[in-house]
Amino acid sequence: MPPVQAKLRVTHAAFPGQATFDTAFSRALLREVAQADGAQCLRVYRPDEVLAFSLLDRGAPGFAAALCAARELGFAAVLRLAGGRAALFHRDSLAFAWCQPSADPRRGIEARYREITDILLRVLRALGVDARVGEVPGEYCPGRYSINARGRLKLAGVGQRVVRGAAYVGGVLLVDDAARAREALLPVYRALALPLDPESIGSVAEEVGGLTLQSVLAALREEFGRRYEVVDFEPSARTLAAARELAPAHELGPGGTGPGSREDASRLSA
Questions:
Q1: Which terminus of the chain is less hemmed in, N or C, by CB atoms within 10 Å?
Q2: Percent share of the chain, pLDDT over 70
Q3: Sheet holding 76-79: strands in order across?
Q4: pTM for this model (two decimals)
């Protein structure tokens, strides 16, 4: 008999025009997994145009200028849930938030990175992309578990957050319109005095013509379906209420200030 697959609840819920609520929703899912029955869940969705800044970014001397640059280009700004430096989301990308129960989430950090990068590699290679793992020179939000094309162009970033009882694996895959990402990230990183080579930013569609958000999403679901018993779900009223409660922690005020998060957690990026 084949082995019994673990259940994975999947949602594609998105909240256009509500950047802080959108971030808080993923955090609410993480809290729910940590506190409830331990059923893991995966959110894969099409985000709005958002620049997600970290606590490190918020403490930088040039943060107010970076925030202004992002907003002038039409990007909302939020305090990110996981990761080390500013990351970009736009309408031609796929964002994901994978919340997993764990009695000792710190011990599983490397294993979770290996699994999510293996999933992304298999998906992209099946679609015809020469996908690899590793940081490329000059990339934004650099990390050794970045997903790149041909060792030259960053396609996806991955980050983790651990809380008592659960872990969050999140990231974004740039499917198309790398030019828009370059346009937004360059002035933001310049303001933050961070190195960035705009030519290190790539997209899936630039590597293989004809690929769309829908085709990449379908391939991603198929790969998760090989590993887990995938069950679709819609967010509950309780989760939505929790997200409304948590949203202020991810707001960034006009000058770059905001309440931030007081939750006892650790952020790790790649």
A1: N
A2: 91
A3: 76-79, 50-53, 87-89
A4: 0.92
